[in-house]
Amino acid sequence: MGFSIRWSAIPFALAIATVGIKPALSQPIMISPSSQPIQVSGMSGGNQKDSNCAGFVAPMPNHIVQVTEDTDLRFVLQGATSSALLIRSSTGQKFCVPADSYSQGKIEIPGRWVKGTYSVFVGDRANENHSYTLLISRSQ
């Protein structure tokens, strides 16, 4: 017989095979008024066209941010000049800012962020994939 089945993996594998579910993202990024700056990185772009300003995005957000209390935050993305930062709140609000040649790929979205969950997409208007770094910090 030469093979063994790992029973704990079967329900997960069946869910992926039958429904096409991708494994979940890593844990949400938790932000509170006392949080230290958090830096994450990844690849921009995807295969879904955003009809607003983000260009092409992945079907799932690049990052999930959980704001635990209303607080002043600054999202700073450093990516390609074709990058765009799209943030969707759980209440349906959208914030989208594209980079341009003057910003050299740097995008900033500061403001007062209310308690809630935010889906962060890093799109690419040229339908390419580029590495990026996202810094989330308190606004001063």
Structure, explained:
The protein has 140 residues and is mainly beta. The chain has a single domain, classed as Jelly Rolls. The chain has one helix at residues 10-19, and strands at 29-31, 38-43, 48-50, 55-57, 63-67, 71-78, 83-89, 94-98, 106-113, 116-124, 131-138. Strands 1-5-10-7-8 form a 5-stranded mixed beta sheet, with no helix packed on it. Strands 2-11-6-9 form a 4-stranded antiparallel beta sheet, with no helix packed on it. A two-stranded antiparallel ribbon has the order 3-4. Strand 3 and strand 4 form a beta hairpin. The chain is globular, with a radius of gyration of 17 Å.
Report the span from N to C terminus: 65 Å
Radius of gyration: 17 Å
Q: Portion of residues in helices?
A: under 10%
Strand content: over 45%
Total separate domains:
1
Number of helical elements: 1
Q: Quick one: biggest sheet?
A: 5 strands, mixed
Envelope shape: globular
CATH architecture: Sandwich
Q: What integer is the average pLDDT?
A: 84
The CATH topology is given as Jelly Rolls
Briefly note the structural class of the backbone.
mainly beta
The spatial strand order of the largest sheet comes to 1-5-10-7-8
Please write out the topology.
Layout: H1 10-19, E1 29-31, E2 38-43, E3 48-50, E4 55-57, E5 63-67, E6 71-78, E7 83-89, E8 94-98, E9 106-113, E10 116-124, E11 131-138
